[in-house]
Design brief:
Number of domains: 2
Strand order of the largest sheet: 1-2
Largest sheet: 2 strands, parallel
Number of strands: 2
Number of helices: 11
Shape: flat
Strand content: under 5%
Length: about 300
């Protein structure tokens, strides 16, 4: 590539709108088939593979074994589960199978998304997006684990403290509320764990600065505590403070990483200004570096 020539996508094949739609249809078809097959397997495939005799009197599908594992790990022994309605167990059975199928099929779905968008990305976009995507997925997975292993058990144990104060002699919860609480708390914790990646990305593209984040720390921490209270509505102050402490550590780590990108961007802008002081975008005023399309506002200079 000649110096000053704008970067081009790796795949320069011109595709019509119909061809794009056909490819999107194929990718969606693969994803839906994968999710459907995994859902059926979770619903009907037996989890006991030790001996065929066990299947005759102890048949349990895979989704049931996964629910039993979550139940034994999260639910305190003093907390009883109730159906609530006659259809609640059936609803939980099918909804759980679909959710687990979505989780297990995520590598296939991610691969299909990658294959669809990757040819259209410019090299500089690919260099920026993929590291952030890897960090996003890693922190999201860590947040899911933290929410499932730490926050959710704390939430249910904290709920038991208030049962005697209200005259409840048999602590219990419906299965729909039980598994819904686990799902909401786990997913919300996973999303909040991605805060540093989102912060670094916003700083990297120049939408915000680390100075503005540091200047508004107290408001951000206050909002974080509110988010923690929403995620764990029955967890009590102790659980909220634990979650807030984790969020604060993640945010401060994100600020440190964002500062490195901020300094690197400032140095690049200084170099471009020294080398080509008059070569600037006529729309946003940023240095072009010999490009036809502005790397900041993406507008053509022709």
């Amino acid at each position: 590539m000649a110096e000053g020539e704008p970067e081009k996508p790796r795949n320069m094949k011109e595709m019509t709108l119909l061809e794009h739609l056909m490819e999107l249809k194929y990718r969606l078809k693969v994803c839906l088939i994968t999710i459907g097959v995994l859902t059926i397997l979770l619903l009907v495939f037996p989890g006991q593979l030790t001996s065929p005799e066990e299947l005759l009197y102890m048949y349990k599908p895979l989704v049931s074994l996964i629910l039993d594992w979550i139940n034994s790990m999260v639910r305190p022994q003093a907390l009883e589960l109730f159906a609530g309605t006659i259809t609640a167990p059936l609803e939980v059975y099918f909804i759980a199978a679909l959710i687990f199928a979505l989780i297990f099929s995520s590598p296939v779905v991610g691969y299909e998304i990658f294959k669809y968008i990757d040819p259209a990305l410019y090299p500089h976009e690919r260099r920026m997006i993929y590291p952030f995507l890897a960090a996003f997925l890693g922190l999201f997975a860590a947040g899911l684990g933290f929410g499932l292993y730490v926050i959710t058990p704390f939430t249910f144990k904290a709920m038991l403290i208030f049962f005697p104060y209200t005259g409840v002699t048999l602590p219990g919860i419906t299965i729909m509320d039980f598994y819904t609480t686990i799902l909401v708390v786990t997913l919300a914790t996973g999303v909040v764990f991605t805060t540093p990646v989102i912060l670094v990305l916003l700083v990297r593209v120049g939408l915000i600065s680390t100075r503005s984040v540091e200047r508004n720390r107290k408001w951000i921490y206050g909002a974080m505590y509110i988010v923690a209270a929403i995620i764990t509505p029955d967890g009590g102050m102790f659980t909220n403070l634990i979650l807030l402490g984790v969020f604060v550590g993640l945010l401060e780590g994100g600020i440190l990483v964002a500062k490195r990108y901020e300094k690197r961007r400032e140095k690049e802008e200084e170099v471009e200004e020294v080398e080509i002081p008059t070569d600037r975008c006529r729309f946003c005023g940023k240095p072009l570096g010999g490009r036809i399309f502005c790397p900041y506002c993406k507008r053509s200079q022709i």
